[in-house]
Amino acid sequence: MAADTGSYIKHHLTNAKMCMSDGGVAFNKACADAGFWTVHVDTLAWSIVLGLIFLLTFRSVAKKATTGVPGKMQCAVEMVVEFVDKSVKETFHGKNALIAPLSLTIFVWVLLMNAMDWVPVDWIPTIAGLIGQHAFGMDPHDVYIKSVPTTDMNMTFALSLGVFFLIIYYSIKVKGLGGFAKELTLQPFNHPAFIPVNFILESVTLIARPVSLALRLFGNLYAGELIFILIATIGLFQLPVHFLWAAFHLLVIPLQAFIFMMLTIVYLSLAHEDH
Amino acid sequence: MNINATLIGESIAFIVFVIFCMKFVWPPIMAAIEDRQKTIADGLAASDRAAKDLELAQAKAAEQLKEAKAQAAEIIEAAKKREAQMIDEAAEKAQAEREKIIASGHAEIESERNRATEELRQQVSALAVAGAEKILERSIDAAAHSDILDKLVAEL
């Protein structure tokens, strides 16, 4: 039982891997030695599908958007858009055509990816296992699929590094290269002798932003998913416990999406501010 | 740590999604929202204006009503005055008519009486002459004594 539980948990926490191996593509265990050039196909597929669901839904509403009496779908989309727009306007006081759509993308996409956490942990792996077994003749224990993309650090770091590069881009664009260098070296102690100390402090502050963004989202969702998996191993009693934990995620899932969006706005508005 | 090429794939997906959102999703939705906000603001302003207009119209109507009432009162007053005046005039006219009728009656009576008196006088004088003739049993020259008779008649 203990070994079973261990392998069960490990199976659920392993991504489906794909890599190149001499001339062809290899999957999962064959990719153990592929190093960096491995791709988590499940993370990629789920995140892109969810991203497309978000964009196509919003795009279809945008195309049909009427300025008169809106339909229910348009109302819902407009509520989300206005919520994001309000959050951006409250924090960021400049003119920037990118920040608001960026925030909307982050918020809705992360929300959808987090929401995959609500899908009972066995459903998707079981279906995938059955498909793998019957369509491809694989051992179902060799079919891995993790359906919550935000429990993959690659996903959260991709988001936070995107934000990080925007922070640097806007810092240099608004303050100039000199201004950005000054910000990194003449704070918090405005004295030439402190330049190295300042630089270390400010660099850590700067780099801590994407790292904390990515790890916060990853940690929350990974922990949530792990607890779901643990709950799934305790037998019949899992049903009420699962329900409680899923209800708790009503809070966690939107909150983490909101925090990611809000901190993105805050970091980008700090990048626009001249000290 | 399990960082691998997925990071690159997800970064590309992220960039593409953000650009798509920025170009094709955000602007039309925002435009629709802002347009509707403007429409609603215009509508509210229009309704405000209409309320103000209504208030003005009501005030105007009340004023006109008051004016009309005053005018009506004035007209009634004038009519009453005219009525009284007409009654007075009629009374005056009637009075004058009455007086005229009375005066003409008086005049007629007077002339009738004068005529009667005259006639009476004539007859009396004739009677007196006849009587005197009979008393005297003789012919008296009427002409010779007519002055005495005339004096008699005038004394009647």
Q: Please bin the fraction of helical residues of chain A.
A: 55-70%
Helix tally of chain A equals 8
Q: What's the main sheet of chain A like?
A: 3 strands, antiparallel
Radius of gyration of chain B (Å): 61 Å
Oligomer: heterodimer
Average pLDDT score of chain A: 89
Number of strands of chain B: 0
Strand content of chain B: under 5%
Output the strand order for the largest sheet of chain A. Answer: 2-1-3
Strand content of chain A: under 5%
Q: Quickly give the structural class of chain A.
A: mainly alpha
> Helical proportion of chain B?
over 70%
Segments of chain A where pLDDT lies below 50 for 5+ residues? Answer: none
Short overview:
The complex is a heterodimer of chains A (275) and B (156). With 275 residues, chain A is mainly alpha-helical.
Task: Please explain how this structure is put together.
The complex is a heterodimer of chains A (275) and B (156). Chain A contains 8 helices and 3 strands. Chain A has 275 residues and is mainly alpha-helical. In chain A, strands 2-1-3 form a 3-stranded antiparallel sheet. Chain A is globular. With 156 residues, chain B is mainly α. Chain B is 93% helix and 0% strand. Chain B contains 2 helices and no strands. The longest helix of chain B is centred in the middle third of the chain and has 131 residues. The radius of gyration of chain B is 61 Å and the shape is rod-shaped. Chain B starts with 5 loop residues before the first helix and ends with a helix. The relative contact order of chain B is 0.03. The model of chain B has no long low-confidence stretch (mean pLDDT 89). Chains A and B meet through strand 3, helix 2, helix 3, helix 4 and helix 6 of A and helix 1 of B.
